[in-house]
Specification:
heterotrimer; A mainly alpha; B mainly alpha; C mainly alpha; A: mainly alpha; three-stranded antiparallel β-sheet; 3 strands; B: mainly alpha
Chain lengths: ~725, ~100, ~170
């Protein structure tokens, strides 16, 4: 009944291509091993997780090589599809399998690579954590979910991987769940994404109902075949896109992403670079024919469409929010949201290859930035992520972290000749070339804002004077640990979870090297710096796989067979087209630097405290600090506006309808009772009762211990009475 | 396969669940034990359904009621946990031993 | 011959799954760690789903996985988190009268085992009972058992509203 091989239709294409399904299977098996035996292993399960990721990486590397050969060999690169029947019922078959094409290969390589580095980094970062083994188990399962999703042969498997990731993100964000804020962040992430997931289920149901297949290649072929009616595709695309909005943190469901920073930093880094949030973008890229046809992308004269609009809005609002954050991880979180907006916008304007390429480059530099932030907190600022109060001047003390941060920042801002430039500018260029002028402008503004907020974050963290923990002003480490022990209740913000963690490892920390050098931040240990260096290198060079200015189009060539529809030719690259964006990046840098020096610098300046003095600016600042009041909207308007009326209505029904009925019965009963009392009770029964009463009181006294009010005891009595009753019946009947 | 395989398995699970309901103090754990009991009932329903399926083609009443029981169980857990939450909020404990206000 | 082999395979499969289920069920009621108990419950429920498959009830098995292993278990974990049950070992999970449970459970088990063996000692499940068709299940739900289905919908609605009323903060 299970796993009967159904189709191996493709010609032999190489061992790695044929066996790509092993890549998600290995981490899934490792997850089971870690959960079952992890605590007994010498490294408490970390080695299994890392080994499985490395095995995945090796397979993915081989896969990539063979795919490149495969593409070179064939004019039209066929995907390598395999499928096994997992499940069938009433003629309906659900399969599991692999759909390996350029897009999947890229994602598999990316996920295994980033996961390997993040897990190595975690060995040091979460050392001595009280749920160390569980942490690695959840990380491994998380990667397995993402890998199963990107290599999915059909939508059922896709949903499977998607949901595994949702569950693991819940576990990982709430890793230190004893802290109230963390468990609330985990719940928020889970439930917000679930709102979107309804869209995924509905969308897949629509597609299955209309096309009769779950297979991704089948759906894509069907969508471009011209058979389906336009409205079916439109609704399917909208429903699926709602899922992407939830998962990829697009406006207006982006609010969970910054809160998700409550998890440990490696988790944030993994979530935000190559897994989880990319899933939504990946879904759009995977089923691009559905979206492309359904939303009329690239139809002549179209100025806007849903995907581009949501992407564009997300770019701007998230970048604006990044300005007012004091928590370095939250700046990066909003930056991720904004970059995801770029990817969505790229897909929305028909720039498919640049958008997918941006997934690829973004993963490296964003992962690096997060790990830098973790490195700073780990050794530089004593587990605080507060840029304003606990950082500053770390440039000299942590040269490697600083260097890798600068490289990645350059890549994020899209400075020429680093990776971000080749992907982001291509998206912006594509918007212009495909006549989406509005989104071209939005992309440019976004580039300006990106540079500006990253300059601010860099200035606050690495330049200026050391403040707070970075300067060693913090309470002595022991006091700190004790304080955290004594007061495990809430401390605001995500600094609290770090404090929480410190409390968990206060004993182990005595032998920790940074204890001595406390207040004199030094560079992080090798296990942390190593991944940083690798990622920073890739942040520069990964862009050269598809560098339009140098006419390198390797990436484009490898991946184009996954698009599924014919898109307009990309514009020929000309440096003159890149000038606006380069200028704006430079302008963003200069303006922001000037402002930062004025506001945060040592010299006195008119600009200091401007938000307090100017009412208009103050209002704008508050508006941003409160995240556009979206959380309040969800809390107050939706929860209070929908759930509470229901509750109120239920209460009203309870009070007025049910109570009234009961009352009426009661009154009727009382009248009957009165009559009975007068005529029967007083005269006939009374005498008899008085005698019984005395007997009953005696019995009652004897039985009173049974009425203890203890539920378990009632249960015991109930079940033993039932058992004895059954026994009596059995004996009587035999 | 003997039909007794399934019926005896159901009986064992049922009794384990009964033990859990009686012995556990934590209200959440009691709810979990109740889930065990409900599942053992489902096992019986489906076993009998299969036993008589051949003589009554097209009749799948056992399946239907197993589905109903699953739905009821979901409702039960929802309300049960809401009550546990409420108790926790009012008393800062979900120990069933401390729940009683009677003197018995 | 082939049918014989299938029979043996089914019996072995049943035995393994049943053993895992019973072991996990015992863990549910004896574990001193709430989270471990919840995970053991997952094993029992998944095992039950596997047994349903052996009983040819595929749809019920899938529903079991979706509703129990998916939704209900998440509810339980929420419950554990929100009531902040202790994470590690918690020696105090059993109540004072825990030992009363053992004789009661054993008595019930004895009675049931006796009755079952007495009543069904060698009755075999029909080999070619066939898969339960989804169509038949839906026909059964929506034609003869429509009334219970309605009642069930009301119960679910009431449960949802009741849970909101109970759990809201003010």
């Amino acid at each position: 009944m299970f796993l009967a091989e159904e189709a191996g239709a493709t010609v032999a294409a190489g061992w790695f291509l044929e066996h790509a399904w092993l890549i998600p299977v290995i981490p899934a098996v490792s997850f089971a091993i870690i959960i079952l035996f992890g605590k007994k292993l010498p490294m408490k399960g970390a080695e299994v997780g890392i080994a499985s990721m490395m095995a995945g990486l090796v397979l993915a590397t081989g896969l990539t090589y063979q795919w490149i050969v495969h593409v070179r060999g064939a004019a039209e690169a066929e995907p390598v599809i395999k499928s096994w029947v997992w499940w069938q019922s009433g003629g309906m078959k659900f399969g599991l399998g692999q759909h390996i094409d350029g897009l999947a290969v890229m994602a598999l390589l990316l996920v295994t690579f980033i996961s390997t580095l993040v897990q190595i980094y975690s060995v040091e970062y979460v050392r001595d954590d009280r749920r160390y083994t569980h942490f690695f188990a959840a990380m491994t399962l998380f990667s397995a979910g993402m890998l199963a999703m990107v290599s999915a042969e059909n939508m059922v498997q896709f949903i499977l991987g998607w949901e595994i990731m949702g569950l693991c993100s819940f576990l990982l964000i709430g890793h230190w769940w004893e802290e109230r804020a963390n468990s609330e962040a985990a719940l928020k992430a889970f439930l917000t994404v679930r709102v979107g997931d309804i869209g995924l289920l509905v969308g897949v149901a629509i597609l299955f109902g209309a096309s009769g297949t779950f297979s991704i290649s089948g759906i894509n072929a069907w969508a471009v075949s011209g058979q389906p009616s336009h409205s079916v595709l439109l609704w399917a695309a909208i429903a699926l896109f709602i899922a992407c909005i939830g998962k990829s943190g697009q406006f207006p469901l982006h609010t969970w992403l910054p809160d998700a920073m409550a998890g440990p930093t490696p988790v944030s880094s993994l979530l935000h670079s190559s897994t989880m949030v990319v899933a939504g973008v990946f879904l759009v890229a995977r089923l691009y024919p559905v979206f492309h046809t359904g939303l009329d992308i690239n139809v002549a004269g179209q100025q806007v469409n849903l995907i581009a609009v949501i992407g564009g809005i997300t770019i701007l609002i998230a970048a604006a929010l990044a300005f007012v954050q004091n928590d370095i991880k939250k700046v990066l979180a909003y930056s991720t949201v904004s970059q995801l907006g770029y990817m969505m916008m790229g897909l929305g304007v028909g720039a498919w290859v640049p958008a997918v390429f941006h997934i690829f480059t973004h993963a490296f530099f964003k992962c690096c930035l997060f790990l830098c932030a973790g490195s700073v907190a780990h050794t530089g600022s004593h587990h605080s992520f507060d840029m304003k109060n606990d950082m500053g001047g770390l440039r000299k003390k942590m040269p490697i972290t600083f260097g890798t941060w600068m490289v990645s920042t350059a890549a994020l801002c899209g400075l020429p000749l680093v990776s971000g430039f080749f992907s982001k500018d291509e998206i912006i260029d594509g918007a212009k070339h495909n006549n989406y002028t509005v989104f071209f402008v939005i992309g440019l503004i976004g580039a300006f804002m990106t540079t500006a907020y990253m300059t601010r974050a860099t200035y606050l963290t690495f330049f200026g004077k050391a403040r707070g923990a970075a300067a060693g002003e913090h309470a002595h480490a022991d006091d700190h640990a004790h304080a955290a022990d004594a007061a495990p209740h809430r401390v605001e913000g995500s600094a609290s979870d770090e404090a929480q963690r410190v409390s968990g490892q206060s004993e182990a920390e005595a032998s920790h090297p940074r204890q001595q050098g406390f207040g004199w931040a030094t560079e992080s240990p090798l296990l942390i710096v190593g991944p940083l260096l690798i990622l920073a290198t890739l942040a520069i060079f990964s862009g050269y796989l598809n560098a339009a200015p140098f006419h390198i189009e390797k990436f484009h060539h490898w991946i184009e067979s996954s698009i599924g529809v014919s898109l307009p030719e990309a514009a020929e690259f000309e440096w003159i087209n890149a000038i606006p964006s380069i200028t704006l990046v430079a302008a963003g840098f200069l303006v922001s630097l000037f402002l930062c020096r004025a506001v945060f610098g040592e010299a006195d300046s008119k600009l200091k405290g401007l938000t307090e003095r100017s009412r208009l600016l103050g209002a704008g600042h508050r508006f941003l600090v409160n995240k556009y009041y979206l959380d309040d909207l969800y809390e107050k308007v939706i929860v209070h506006g929908v759930a509470h009326p229901i509750a109120q209505a239920a209460y009203w029904v309870n009070q007025h309808v049910i109570d009234a009925t009961v009352d009426a019965f009661g009154r009727g009963g009382k009248r009957t009772g009165d009559w009975v009392y007068k005529n029967i009770d007083q005269r006939v029964v009374d005498g008899a009762v008085n005698g019984t009463g005395a007997a009953a009181r005696g019995t009652g006294g004897a039985l009173r211990p049974i009425q203890s009010g203890k539920v378990n005891q009632y249960g015991a009595l109930l079940f033993s009475a039932a058992a004895i009753g059954a026994l009596v019946l059995v004996i009587v009947n035999t | 396969m003997l039909v007794n395989n399934f019926l005896l398995l159901g009986a064992v699970l049922f009794c384990i669940g009964v033990y859990g309901v009686i012995a556990r103090k934590n209200a959440v754990m009691v709810l979990m034990s109740i889930e065990l009991i409900l599942n053992s009932v489902n096992l019986n329903l489906l076993a009998f359904n299969q036993l008589w399926a051949k003589d009554n083609p097209g009749h799948v009443d056992g399946n239907t009621f197993a589905l109903y029981i699953i739905a009821i169980a979901a409702a039960e857990v929802g309300v049960g946990l809401a009550m546990v939450l409420l108790i926790f909020r009012n008393r800062k404990s979900i120990s069933l031993d401390e729940l009683s206000e009677m003197k018995g | 011959m082939l049918a014989q082999n299938v029979q043996v395979a089914q019996n072995i499969g049943f035995g393994i799954i049943a053993a895992v289920m019973i072991a996990s069920a015992l863990k549910v009621v004896t574990s001193s760690n709430v989270v471990h108990a919840a995970l053991a419950l997952v094993a029992v429920l998944a095992g039950a789903a596997a047994q349903y498959l052996l009983l040819a009830a595929e749809f019920v098995a899938v529903t079991q996985i979706l509703v129990y292993v998916g939704a209900v278990m998440v509810l339980f974990l929420f419950g554990v988190m929100l009531t902040r049950a202790k994470l590690g070992r918690d020696a105090d999970l059993n109540n004072k009268n825990a030992k009363v449970g053992i004789p009661v459970a054993l008595l019930m088990l004895g009675v049931m085992v006796y009755v079952l063996i007495d009543g069904w000692h060698a009755t075999k499940l029909p080999q070619d009972g066939g898969q339960v068709e989804l169509k038949n299940v839906s026909d059964s739900i929506f034609v003869p058992y429509l009334l219970p289905f309605w009642a069930l919908s009301f119960v679910l609605l009431a449960a949802v509203i009741g849970a909101i009323v109970l759990a809201r903060k003010d």
